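Q: I'm writing up a methods section and want to include an example of the input and output format. Could you take the sequence below and give the corresponding predicted structure tokens, formatted cleanly so I can copy it straight into the document?
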Amino acid sequence: MFGIGWTEIMVIMIVAVIVLGPKRLPEAMKQIARIFRDIKSTVDDVKNSVISEVDDIKSLPEQTKQEFEKKLSFDDEFEKEFDAQLKKEKKQVITKDYQPKREKISFTKKEEVKDV
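A: Here is the clean output for your methods example:
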């Protein structure tokens, strides 16, 4: 305890009895005990909150990984749905009498009209 031996504690107790007197010593000891108890509870609260925050930080990579996997699975589902819809459209086009529209392609230059 604080690196204090029994002899030092005895010296402190004798000085306390001489300074405070036997009437005020019990009340002073109660106040000192209350102060140490409050300090200990405050330190424990801070310790618990720090541990909780560290645990939250440690769980962040796992949460990020889960969110990433969820997005990947959504992308996979979207790709599967898109492919299925595309195949469906191809089947509809093939079954109908479908004639693709052809555009006329010209390799001649068009004359530019200049505004004067």
